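Schema walk-through. Below, the input block comes first and the output block second. Nothing else is stored per chain. Lengths vary across the set, and this one has 358 residues.
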Amino acid sequence: MSRFWSKKVHSLKPYVPGEQPQLENLIKLNTNENPYAPSPKVLEAISKATNESLRKYPDPNGLGLKQTIADYYDLDLNQVFIGNSSDEVLGHAFQALLKQDQPLLFPDISYSFYPVYCRLFGINYQQIPLRADFSIGIDDYQSEGGAVIFANPNAPTGLALDLHKIAELLEQNTDRLVVIDEAYADFSEHSAVGLVQRHANLLVVQTLSKSRALAGLRVGFALGQADLISGLERVKNSFHPYALDSLALAGAVAAFDDDAYFKKHCSMIIDTRDRFSQELKQLGFEVLPSAANFVFAKHKSKPAKDLFEDLRKEAIIVRYFDKPRLDNYLRISIGTDKEMQTLLNKLGLILNQDNFST
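--- output ---
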């Protein structure tokens, strides 16, 4: 520890991202990345933007991208906020909107960045336990508290709260802000974007990292009514006015313009996910019904930690969480059909070896 650290730094427990191992012939299924390349139109747009104009600052307001997103979701320009990844957008939301007198409420099992941001920004929070089946019970959020945030579909479970329940939560808490983190919503039928116009207490946060295969570009955005967006802009422009670089702005616009490519590959991932889930069940796994680009599963007899380590020896990386209620589950990102079949084959061999040895 450095003697020059501030007092706050000593107390921080940073977010730990999924590992990014640099191994040959690795099947990497641990960070929910898209297995398919970005749209060729995205690559073309970035290439065209790679010119002498990079010596100039990008548009600090990103108006071209904001207008593209507003048009895509049939919203007004002042209802769109953009940032350098959805993590940054969430960080601005924690500072601008979620630091209130009453504690922030979120599930005890969800995106692990939420408590990290609370500790960083000095926000009191209360974690609401998921139900026994890992679902979010909206009635559990009727206790005294401030704003509410949760991921939908949730991570790492992949379960989604349907829109009727989200609308009910919003209507029951009109004086309480509700932030829906929709990093995986494009793989489900549960996006709350359509509720933005009707609910002043709703902010929806999305990313281009997952469904649009642009994790390396770092583009996120939020959708909400104008006063919420204005609060985010105040924080962003007090911290990082030029949040998105010129290449990211060009690539993100192209990603929205190529809607056919986006929808085709989302459908491919959903189809692979559903087939893979059924195959896992045939191997003796219990698989939660996923609405994301990953599955959350446990085997009836083989401990998840042992499976994680056995797969790693086969150059297949999945995600294991050594935490209460999660420590017998694996979170497995959806790759290509070939990658998922290789994983199934390896799992079959591992489980058969165990059966033979016993």
